[in-house]
Design goal:
alpha/beta, nine-stranded mixed β-sheet, 24 helices, 42% helix
Amino acid sequence: MPELVDALKAAVAAGTAPSPDLRLALAQTYDPSVLRKAGRALARLTDPDGRLRPVRLSVVAACTVGPLEPLLRACLVGAGALPAIEVAPYGTFELTLATGGFDHAADLLLCLLDESYFVPDDLDVTAPEAAGPYLEERLAQLSGLVGAALRGTEATLVLHTVPLPRSLRDTMISLRTRNALTRLWHRLNAGLLALAEEHPQVQVVDLVGLLAESSVAARDQRLHKYADLPYTDGALLILASEVRRIAQARSGLSKKVLALDLDNTLWGGVLGEVGSEGVELGGLYPGKSFQDLQRTVSRLREQGVVLVLASKNDPGPVEEALSRHPAVLLRPEAFSVSMVNWAPKAGNLHKAADTLGLSTDSFVFMDDSDFERGSVAAELPEVAIIDSSGEPAQLVDSLVRHGWFDVVELTGTDLKRPELYRARSLRNDFSGGFSKAEDYLKALDLRVAVEPVTRFTVARAAQLAARTNQFNLTGVRFDEAATIAMIDAPDRLALTVSVTDRFGDEGLVGAVWLERTAERWSVLNLVLSCRVLSRGVEFAIAGRLAALAAQAGAEALEGRFTPSAKNGVAAGFWEKAGFVPDGDGHFAFAPGKAPDPTPSWITLVESAESTETIESEERQP
């Protein structure tokens, strides 16, 4: 795909970030030779308009890295990141980790390993069981290095399982001894995977499992012997793609919404031609493949992916087929928004985004029609598009292989998200019965709780920091490690915001991070899900912060606003809340003296446990 590389070069030369359609084309390219060239072309990429999310990545390796750096760069840009990549010098793997000789401001620290780090030079090929204690010792040493490296940094450290080279395994001519070594090696890789459970900042890629399902060779013996490069370009691309998925999840670049066609996507055949009883679904191939896709989509929904139905059909037959067909796994209530009509799908996706209160760059669209995919790509280039027109047996792989919806950790809000957005549609319908917005808001019976972050809610707070772009006042994205550090810090405070109304519990929808002294409290960042905007929740948060600062005896509460390409909706918030600008994007409020900005239609819910927690923190020296 030389045209893709040429287009990327043109964007770099023009001093702009690649357009969304170019980034998506890059994200869906799996040819390592193309991505290697693309990564080199992007080496001097700049982003003056702030369209990309900055990601700092350090690489330390127990071998040479080969083309890993350009492959990583291409994958990260494809995900919407602006990567800054630093590679530690060859031969300094243990020293770099032990001494922290890498960028401590990095978001990710990737450790590239091969079997030479673990295999003893004097391996007894007649009795490989004797190598067991050595492998355990090397794993323990690596765990110690990981712990040392993570001190003083909030980076996510990425490890991977290590393939056992066939040349080493087949050197053993005894089948039993060969099996014994393989068993030890599986135990070693299980130990590597377990490091993610021992260290919250560690993620482990199962490179061995991924290679087993791919068609690429793990090793080029000539390059290994010549340059100490243990992995082929294809294997390195698999690893780079998984690092991209981790960065994508950590940085809040994952998608939230899956918009699906029906005909020849969720079932085989055209409903309008064959009727609900004639569509291919369930049973033998190809119906089994379409049902497998529905099962996968249902599983994604269970984990928080919001579903939108986007089909050119008459609503009646679709309702009947989804409700009554015995093999359907996605009933009508599975979809938070249903756009079943004959209007252009690009417009329908735009309307669905408005209904959900989300931007279209959080959408993935799956359709079998070349025309529909092309139309959406032309009008909404930020939407990720999946072609469902090919082999039905490949539908599930086409949907999940890119990791569009990955998150670092599932939270309670993730599990409830589809129903939360379905309730949003009900609220929109409910609002149509009121002539005044304030009457509607009063009828909602809104209740807002602002409470300290706990170790049970810290993952959701970090997720909100990573994924919230519109109502994000400063753009400072406090991750889980940084937020945990604030829980016990006397001069810091991290809070979560939850909302309920007559339609149910919205869950944790906002978070606040503060720096505080006896005289002044400063809001380092405040983020709020777009799901609850336009209800005055942000002003209730400001009111609660002012009350807490007044209780602590602070004379001033300071807010900040840093404009970005996406947070225009939050511009002017502090002034509307009664804060006075004092220059450089800072705003001041006098707790206990200035009027309370909490809207009259919102009830602030204050738990005794919350108040006790904050007061005890304030009393800490």
